[in-house]
Specification:
239 residues; alpha+beta; Deoxyribonuclease I, Chain A; six-stranded mixed β-sheet; 12 strands; globular
């Protein structure tokens, strides 16, 4: 199975600042993923022509399994996370990771009825400050909706904003998750045109076996957003 995680920057290019959603679509189509973890997805915002991007992505890719989380509300419209799956959804939840005085953030949790059995996918977009991120991870790992399906094979992916690579231990490690996108020298994703930061990360628990992982470095990916996407190929252990 294949997962793609991508901060699409509302469909706006990182260097030319042009809104060109077809470029994002092409990057995704070229990788043919089974799961899509997208961040910074617009809905009804003037800068993106008032497009309902969650609806467009769902129609283009996976109409079977779809979950949108509106985190940041603007004067008109807003943006957030979008989680899509090729197969039917058994369980879906949006979990707020917002903290007082900080930009609204969130995580999405989806249990999918995959060909290899139930698998849990978590899509998140964490905050800019170190302490903020640690609090958000702690909140997620202790959340009752997260804990009640903790026995399932699980992948956590998304824009971590973790410049110093400090999330790999701590609460995530205590909860049984390992960092799969390392060493950071191989997984630099930001800024897309000349990446220096390994911000887009993947973590998995013991129920997952990663077979291959990489950053998409195609020419179109370098201009479509300000982030490069990551691709994770995996199996559920025992299959």
């Amino acid at each position: 199975m294949r997962l793609l995680s991508y901060n699409i920057h509302k469909g706006i290019g990182g260097r030319d600042r042009l809104y060109r959603l077809p470029r994002i679509m092409e990057v995704i189509e070229n990788e043919n993923p089974d799961f899509l973890c997208l961040q910074e997805v617009d809905r009804g915002v003037p800068r993106s022509r008032l497009h309902d991007q969650p609806k467009l992505f769902t129609k283009q890719f996976f109409s079977v399994g779809s979950l949108f989380q509106l985190n940041v509300r603007l004067k008109k419209g807003g943006y957030g996370n979008l989680l899509l799956a090729r197969w039917p959804i058994l369980e879906r939840h949006n979990i707020s990771l917002g903290l007082p005085g900080k930009k609204a953030r969130g995580a999405q949790l989806m249990v999918v009825d995959s060909p290899e059995g139930p698998v849990r996918i978590v899509n998140w977009h964490l905050g800019l400050a170190e302490q903020e991120r640690q609090q958000q991870v702690r909140h997620l790992c202790r959340h009752h909706l997260f804990r009640r399906s903790e026995e399932l094979p699980t992948i956590i992916a998304g824009d971590s904003n973790d410049w110093r690579n400090n999330l790999a231990g701590g609460v995530l490690g205590e909860s049984g998750f390992e960092h799969e996108t390392h060493p950071i020298s191989r997984y630099r994703t930001f800024p897309a045109y000349l990446p220096v930061g390994s911000l887009d990360k993947c973590f998995s628990n013991a129920g997952i076996r990663i077979t291959h992982s990489r950053v998409v470095r195609s020419q179109i990916a370098k201009v479509a957003s300000d982030h490069l996407p990551i691709v994770i190929d995996f199996h559920c252990r025992g299959t």
